[in-house]
Amino acid sequence: MTRSSDGAQSPARRAAVPQGAGTSSAGTPARPRRITMEDIAREAGVSRALVSIAMRDAHGVSAATREHILEVARRLGYRHNRVAADLAGRGAGAIGVFVADLHNDLYADVFDGIREILDPSVRRIVLTVGAADGSRDAAGLDGLLEARVGASIGLGVRLPDAELHERAGLGPLVIATRTVPGMLSAASDDVAGARLATEHLLGLGHRRLAFLANPPGDGYLGRRLGFEQAMAEAGLAPQVHVTSYDPGEVRADARALLSGEGPAGERPAGRGGPPSRCSARSPTSACAARRTSP
User: Fold this and answer.
1) Is 277 helix (H, G, I), strand (E, B) or coil?
2) Of 34, 77, 82, whose CA–CA distance to 56 is shortest?
3) At what angle do helices 190-203 and 222-233 cross, to 10 degrees?
4) Given CA atoms 279, 282, 285, 290 in this order, what sign does their dihedral have?
5) Distance CA 45, CA 15 (A)
6) Which of 2, 3, 157, 226 could be bridged to 10 by S-S, CB 3.0 to 4.6 A?
7) CA–CA separation, 230 vs 102, rounded Å?
């Protein structure tokens, strides 16, 4: 048997792989057998290791032999399992993305940006999705880390800072749309943004403003702080009401506020009547509140 310099056998010595599905012992058509790298190696006249190298586009195989192996793989109907390959190679070719809420337009835009930057022929995306109330954050983020992806990006994660630091020790982790001290983070200046929005409403003549805040916890507190700062500098008392992450509940709370009642049904005392405008802690909540505004 003759071989090329990178281990390929001479075509004359290649063994063919049976193409028929065959029949079972009962005479019924047998289920087609899944093509493996061993089948490709046998048909192409190379070692299984060389097939693996060609599939991973790694060094150690000539361009001609790689193309020959890929042509044989296509002819046999082989489909390369990239996820399995990433797991075997400690996930170096995959980026994990955790999205807290698929219905949040901001997270969808950020995900589109991630997908636009990554070259799909080199980097795959492994996606996990949480729940609007944050109850699946830990499981979703842990699933990415346990899959040993090359790096993970968390969109809208609401876990405490301390828990995120613990997970950062398991692999590269970037938190987006939120700043976590001591960790790689990508977020806007929420304090400045909320100040600008509040100052804009004040400039239009509004004096009774209310802010629908997210439940207390680490992260996502900047918009409330910016609202309170702008109101204090204007000599006005800020109305801050804690709501939830559920758009339906946000709408109900906004409706109660604009009608002169607090979210719990209690009328705010000494504040000169209901607010003329509501601000919210997220674009989704703001849209929900806007639908109830006069």
Assistant:
1) strand
2) 82
3) 40
4) positive
5) 7
6) 2
7) 32
112-141 mean pLDDT: 83
> 51 Cβ partners below 8 Å, 6+ apart?
37, 40, 41, 44, 69, 73
pTM of the model: 0.60
Here the tokens at position 185 are 């983070």
CATH code of 41's domain: 1.10.260.40
CATH number at residue 150: 3.40.50.2300
User: How many residues does the structure list for the chain?
Assistant: 294
| pLDDT (tens digit per residue) in 253-275 | 877 877 766 554 444 444 456 67
Query: Is there a contact between 115 and 126 (Cβ–Cβ < 8 Å)?
Result: no
Contact call for residues 46 and 105 (beta carbons, < 8 A): no
- Average pLDDT on 128-154 reads 85
- Say whether 270 sits in a helix, a strand or coil: coil
Provide the token pair at 187. Answer: 């977020």
Determine the structural domain holding residue 232 and report its residue range. Answer: 190-290
